[in-house]
Protein: Transposase
Organism: Candidatus Sedimenticola endophacoides
Amino acid sequence: MSQQQSRREFWRSHHQQCKAQRMTLNAYAEQEGLTLSVFYGWSKRFRQERESGFSRGQVGGSGRTEYRLHFPNGLVLGWNGDADSQCLALLVKSLA
């Protein structure tokens, strides 16, 4: 595991523990001796990642599948029909 991945997992673990304990970021950072500004920054990243993603669902009873790709900036790309994973990967890469 790289140093960057290790650091990311460190902050993700703290973020998850803070949520599980239902504490404010400020209170949790103080309790754990974390730098509040850094903890806020990582928490914002994790929140944005959670808000972005890919979802698939059935459209009514028609049997058609609807896809939605959510980006952290609020953009939502949606379509009905098939999704070719290779084409989708190229699309996401080009938009990143």
Summary: The longest helix spans residues 3-20. The two ends are 24 Å apart (CA to CA). The chain has a mean pLDDT of 78. The first strand starts at residue 53 and ends at 59.
